[in-house]
Structures
1.
Amino acid sequence: MKKTVLSLLFVGFFTALHAQPQKTPTTPATPKEENSASNLTFNPDSQVVTEHTTTIKGQKVPYKATTGTMPVWDEDGKAIAGLFYTYYERSDVKDRAARPLVISFNGGPGSASVWMQIAYTGPSLINIDDEGYPLQPYGIKENPYSILDVADIVFVNPVNTAYSRATSKEIPTTKFFGVNADIKYLADWINGFVSRTNRWASPKYLIGESYGTTRVSGLALELQNSEWMYLNGVILVSPTELGITRGVASEAALKLPYFAATAWYHKMLPSDLQNKDLTAMLPEVEDFTINELLPAMSKGGALDDQKRKEMAAKIARYSGLSEKVVLQNNLDVPYDYFWKELLRDQGFTVGRLDSRYKGIDRKAAGDGPDFNAELTSWLHSFTPAINMYLRNNLNYKTDFKYNMFGSVRPWDDSNDKTGENLRQAMAQNPYLHVMVQSGYYDGACDYFNSKYNMWQMDPSGRLKDRMSWKGYRSGHMMYLRKVDLESANEDIRQFIKQSLPKAGESAKY
């Protein structure tokens, strides 16, 4: 599985060309960090509140949006950063203690929360076509599938993403930029946010996308051990490897089901496979991958010539590539080469984060695409939308730049044990459930590797009743496809409902 440490989630916004919510500022419309002088002064503690109404699943839902910054404190109580966030609360709820709270992170690790905020779970939705491609004019509309009907949501932006910043250039970046540093300061920030908003009694959920899955998997245990905060659920959207080590053989073999899904989409498989539905075809590939290909790859150069040819023929059959290409790559075709090779004769490349997208390179020759066709498409629509939405709909005005992707280098990715952290959090907390959501056409965090995560994270099989997996016919951001936007939100809605304990049900084994 390809790691996605500086290129993940994306979130777009659309403006008031469609249904505009009513806006009623309850605090000054201009945050303090916007200075009338030539120099900007960052205020790590600011807030703007607006009132809105939307329609979700045919029901009117009034809500309050709080947009602003809240400090990250050091050990001495000094503000060393301010995190930009948007907090959506349904405003007609009488019992806030029983109301679930979802804390949402995107990935990167240098990505803003824009992607899931305005394209997935939030109450507003970016203006794109039904398959996720850009439309003009840019804008935003109501999200009829948002989970705000069943849970309040806060979208959090780590340091250097969106409008989040350190308070001084003198603050060491090592306090923020690393797997474990990131988890540590965000856990402390969540504690502060929950206290400020009086949400300690609420059932709590974390959702993370891409690198955000590394983040929330680590946070599940950190919140328990350091903040004494226990969760009801963790949702992993397009998960990374979660620190679970792959061997050479497994790294090579596990990508094949993704190759097959992509080849099926582009009609590059033999007719007997192509004529099957996607989810009817994939189990055959998965079975071959685990039971035949993985053992064969484990033999490496000791694999006899006849068996090597048999494996190459089957890999070619399932991947849409030629046997010659497979053999030239020693049965292990790199992701980059696959994206370049699959449609080479048609003059196209396929996308990394979503293989349904096609790109055009300068020349057909080469070992990898010139650019990520899908990411360029998404930034096309998301960047104008989020800037318009924050200013026009949420009334948050600042001269600071909204970082779709911010600099978080150097990033310390050592000692990543987040998959094990999540397992341990589940073992310690009988209430804690996990759901994984994956797109079949995601080549960055592919769907079969996400299944492999679950198998390896729980080697005893004792936790599997609290773990579930959902697949969608789209890519890394499966919610950009309208059909999957509806079904994926409904899956979250049902996950929340089913993971809430019944009245009087104790947290015990």
2.
Amino acid sequence: MIPSRELPVLNVMEPIVSHMFEDHFEKAGILKCGCEKCRVDVLSLTLNRVPPRYTSTQAGEAFVKALYQDSQLQSDILRELAKAVQVIEEHPNHS
């Protein structure tokens, strides 16, 4: 069975991780490199390390976002973001 491209599917972790990255790393000004390539690499690496949460409805998106109001789950994401920032700063993928 080939999945239909008409069904919009969202990994709710993408906006959650992106928002946390902006709030805790970009706005704080603690990044060595703030270029778009490094930003995307940090987000990609982090998203590969946190469990995906897919939904196709706004209600599902709201439910997952509500789950991630839990301080332990937020701490887990921040830990993975910090690891990804360290990796990308040590090995940037640009010249």
3.
Amino acid sequence: MSEKVWGDYPIYYKQPFRWARYHAHTKPHFFFSVLLGVSAPLLLLATPIRRKLLYSDHEPIPRVYPLPTRARDASLSGYDD
């Protein structure tokens, strides 16, 4: 005698939350991959709102060492520079 692991199969258009919960328990790899795929466009739309209301982007990391804007000292010799 086979026992059911998780109830009867719910019908999507009649019980959408029960249908989602059923698939989250029986096939979590499909359920969460679809959930992440659906949330990606929402995160892309949230970026301009974040820049406008919360905080702006960070300053870019410098890629070169900043050189001083003065003339070089001519009296230095060897590795003193």
